[in-house]
Amino acid sequence: MRIGIKRLLLVEDDRAIADLVKFHFTRAGYTVTSTPSGEEALILVDEIRPDLMVLDWMIEGISGIELCRRLRRKPATANLPIIMLTARGEEDDRLRGLETGADDYVTKPFSPKELVVRAGAVLRRVRPALAAEMLDYAGLEMDLAAHRVRRDGQSISLGPTEYRLLRHFLENPGRVFSRQQLLETVWPHSEDIELRTVDVHIRRLRMALGEHGGADLVRTVRSAGYSLDSEAVV
Q1: pTM
Q2: Res. 52 pLDDT band, cuts 50 70 90
Q3: Superfamily per CATH, domain 6-130
Q4: Is 194 left (phi over 0), alpha (psi -120 to 50) or beta?
Q5: CB hemisphere CA count around 184 (13 angstroms)
Q6: Deepest of 52, 141, 178, 184, by most Cβ within 10 A of its Cβ?
Q7: What is the pLDDT of residues 169-189, one digit of tens each?
Q8: How far apart are CA 226 and CA 100, in angstroms?
Q9: How do the domains of the chain map onto residue ranges?
Q10: Greater confidence, 24 or 86?
Q11: d(Cα 151, Cα 138) in Å, to the nearest integer?
């Protein structure tokens, strides 16, 4: 059973291996973006905000080890789950990869199916909300498999955009997101969408969540953005 789409950034310069990994992760329900370049990977991390990275040690330009080191130094990517994928199987190499910040280390040749399973294990350990089939917070329940939402046992009807908004909030309760951050994360193609569009869908989400009564769970933070907060004050 698929548990919802997660974003994978694959950094691998062997085309055949990249295609193989992409095939298996796509079949497992991931959205996969691939690049052979460490420099491009640094740009893509900011653009697509991946939930997981599979990173080859020996890549074009910046090495995988150096890329991992740079990502761990940045607050925005310090906790990004990273699996190192490499032909370097010596113990010292594995230790170096893990000490640099990799969450797991897979040596080539490898089983693509095992890699997918290990990726799921890393997500469950590092970012459990992404590996869950059910998200819940303050009486809200989102069944990712059935695509259903309930509040205090009452069904909530949401449009596709409101559903994506709520899911993002439920995966990050209490965290404040700016309109620009929400636009980049929730809208697949946000280039031609105005920031005020976020406000419109936030209002729709509020109305849907309040259909059966109860406190407003969406907090407005002046000059900052919105968050899902059980102590929300509009």
Answers
A1: 0.56
A2: very high
A3: Response regulator (3.40.50.2300)
A4: beta
A5: 12
A6: 52
A7: 988 888 888 998 898 888 866
A8: 34
A9: 6-130, 134-228
A10: 24
A11: 9
